Amino acid sequence: MEIKIIDIPKITDPRGNLAVVEGDTIPFKMERIYYLYDVPSTSHRGGHAHKELRQLIIALSGSFDVVLDDGKEQKAITLNKPDKGLLIPTMVWRELENFSSGSVCMVVASMEFSEDDYIRDYSDFKKLASS
User: Fold this and answer.
1) CA angle 6, 10, 11 (to 5 degrees)
2) Helices (H) and strands (E) in the chain, counts
3) Residues 68-124 pLDDT 10s
4) Cβ(48)–Cβ(120) under 8 Å?
């Protein structure tokens, strides 16, 4: 599976730390940024794959698990540091779960929203992933 944890450049300072995502920090042009917050610990987010869109997911605060499936293998990754990001390529099913209280999940996307890019049915995803 071609997922990767990347280091987000940071500047440490006694007044507080600063993390920066810009230009060549990620291997795609940023077209959309959104964030999830106030997610109940028993809720699941995601539950889809993308045909063309790539994402960088960062836990800005708190922690959560990202369960990934490329059709061949599954992997769970805990995100809990605002200076680490999870790069997710195309055609990887993702579920986000186990949100801690006060967690904030930021997603940087390579495309603007397009419903046509989503695969929302897992059996459809499995068929596409195996072809």
Assistant:
1) 165
2) 1, 12
3) 999 999 999 999 999 999 999 999 999 999 999 999 999 999 999 999 999 999 999
4) yes
Q: What are the start-end ranges of the H helices in the chain?
A: 122-130
Mapped onto helix, strand or coil, the DSSP state of residue 15 is: coil
Q: Which residues contact 113 (CB under 8 A, 6 or more apart)?
A: 32
What is the C-alpha R_g of the chain?
Answer: 15
CA dist 93 to 15, 67, 122, 123, Å? 39, 8, 8, 11
* Candidate list 44, 48, 81, 84, residue with the active-site label: 48
Question: Domains (ranges, CATH) in the chain?
Answer: 4-130 (2.60.120.10)
**Is-above-0.90 flag for pTM?**
yes
Q: Is 48 a catalytic residue?
A: yes
